[in-house]
């Protein structure tokens, strides 16, 4: 059984059993099609009326948004994000399922911010008795978050990448640098050497409601860049398990396919509210057909991780106990089923509290613990410096500990 470094992620505090979902596979990439030429509209005779409307629209557009600037430490790195103007948002008690903008307007606003990502990576295993390694290709999507080239995507899109190629909406290609990637949040940041890009307008995922308009833009199948699909927000916050990590995600019925990973989920105003990362499809264990289940990481969560990756190259503010964990699914010899500590990280709160290898965690802050997911749920709202009350079973004896949580740099 594999070991896990304890490095917990924010989770929903629902009592329901989380769905278990696999991230979308990265297909072999093909050449991206050139973007379609714009359609020339028939000129209206009321030219003066149109001119006045355009001027008013431009004025509203300039006054409707504002820039939020994130300044990072002593490194001097500065990234400017375009954020939605809260003053022009639809009231929280009003459904936006019909959208403030038309689908055509949403696509026109958001599409230039979505990119195609082609990844090459070295894989072990080759053919024949001698094994070896080979170069594999995969494809995904990404969203521009700054005019100077920072792009957000999924960790599983850029994981182990040896070469990353980004294709913009206008067809221009750039080789990208991997800035940082976080497995637990499934967020990665790449950077291209370009200026005057069109960043997405960052929305507020805490304000979305079930039934709101949802628009997905990405690169399905790795060959259909710029594809736009639409639907609604099916659930504003859903707990699912993706690649053994419990995550809080947005659920949508907008069509999502392999290659959409890392692309954008946009609201009825064309604001980015999520980063697409998974879908569920096929059949359930009972044989029922699964349709219309797509998921995206809320943009509030994604951007918090993105800020850390841009500043440090990894996530440093995630509260951790400071242990390696192993989950035992059934009784094996003298070991009961449960969540075991396999090793203690030097200098951690776990070491200071006196936890030991082979301790089985049975309770955290009064909550029964039998799995990695159970512990993650308890730690979702914890911060570095908080105290965690732990009960462990040590060779048949129950022991209690108070662990001061610390921040740590993610192994990814």
How would you sum up this structure in a few lines?
The protein is mainly β.
Walkthrough of the structure:
By secondary structure, the chain is mostly beta strands. Helix content is 14%, strand content 41%. The strands form 5 sheets. Strands 1, 19, 20, 21, 22, 23 and 24 form a 7-stranded antiparallel sheet that branches. A 6-stranded antiparallel β-barrel has the order 12-13-14-17-16-15. It has a 6-stranded antiparallel β-barrel with strand order 5-6-7-10-9-8. A hairpin with a 4-residue loop joins strand 3 and strand 4. The radius of gyration is 23 Å and the shape is globular.
Descriptors for this entry?
412 residues, mainly beta, Thrombin, subunit H, Pdz3 Domain, 2 domains, seven-stranded antiparallel β-sheet, 25 strands, 14% helix
Topology:
Layout (H helix, E strand, L loop, with lengths): L3 E2 L13 E3 L25 H18 L1 E7 L4 E7 L19 H8 L3 E11 L8 E12 L5 E4 L1 H4 L2 E7 L5 E10 L4 E5 L9 E2 L10 E6 L8 E16 L2 E8 L11 E3 L5 E12 L5 E10 H14 L5 E3 L2 E6 L9 E7 L4 H5 L6 E5 L2 E2 L3 H8 L7 E8 L2 E8 L1 E3 L4
Parallel strand pairs: 2-13, 4-11
Antiparallel strand pairs: 1-19, 3-4, 5-6, 5-8, 6-7, 7-10, 8-9, 9-10, 12-13, 12-15, 13-14, 14-17, 15-16, 16-17, 18-25, 19-20, 20-21, 21-22, 21-23, 23-24
């Amino acid at each position: 059984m594999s070991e896990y470094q304890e490095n917990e992620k924010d989770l929903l505090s629902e009592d329901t059993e989380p769905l278990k979902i696999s991230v979308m596979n990265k297909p072999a990439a093909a050449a991206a099609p050139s973007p379609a030429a714009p359609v020339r509209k028939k000129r209206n005779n009321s030219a003066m009326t149109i001119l006045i409307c355009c001027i008013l629209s431009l004025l509203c557009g300039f006054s409707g948004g504002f820039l939020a600037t994130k300044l990072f430490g002593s490194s001097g790195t500065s990234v400017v994000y375009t954020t939605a103007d809260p003053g022009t948002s639809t009231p929280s008690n009003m459904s936006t399922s019909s959208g403030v903008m038309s689908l055509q307007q949403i696509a026109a606003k958001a599409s230039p911010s979505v990119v195609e990502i082609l990844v090459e990576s070295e894989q072990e295993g080759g053919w024949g008795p001698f094994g070896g390694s080979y170069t594999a290709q995969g494809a995904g999507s990404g969203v521009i978050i700054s005019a100077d080239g920072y792009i957000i995507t999924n960790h599983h899109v850029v994981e182990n990448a040896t070469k990353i190629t980004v294709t913009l909406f206008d067809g221009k290609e750039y080789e990208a640098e991997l800035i940082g990637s976080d497995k637990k949040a499934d967020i990665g940041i790449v950077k291209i050497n370009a200026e005057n890009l069109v960043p997405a307008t960052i929305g507020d995922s805490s304000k979305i409601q079930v039934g709101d308009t949802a628009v997905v833009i990405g690169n399905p199948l790795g060959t259909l860049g710029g594809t736009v699909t639409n639907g609604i927000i099916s659930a504003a916050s859903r707990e699912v398990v993706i690649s053994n990590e419990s995550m809080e995600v947005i659920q949508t019925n907008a069509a999502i396919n392999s290659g959409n990973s890392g692309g954008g989920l946009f609201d009825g105003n064309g604001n980015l509210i999520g980063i697409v990362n998974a879908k569920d499809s096929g059949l359930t264990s009972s044989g029922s057909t699964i349709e219309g289940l797509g998921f995206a990481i809320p943009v509030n969560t994604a951007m918090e991780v993105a800020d850390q990756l841009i500043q440090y190259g990894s996530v440093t503010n995630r509260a951790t106990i400071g242990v390696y964990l192993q989950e035992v699914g059934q009784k094996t010899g003298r070991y009961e089923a449960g969540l075991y500590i396999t090793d203690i990280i030097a200098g951690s709160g776990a070491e200071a509290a006196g936890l030991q290898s082979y301790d089985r965690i049975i309770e955290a802050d009064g909550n029964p613990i039998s799995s990695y997911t159970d512990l993650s749920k308890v730690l979702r709202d914890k911060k570095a410096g908080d105290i965690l009350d732990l009960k462990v079973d040590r060779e048949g004896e129950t022991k209690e500990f108070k662990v001061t949580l610390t921040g740590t740099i993610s192994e990814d």
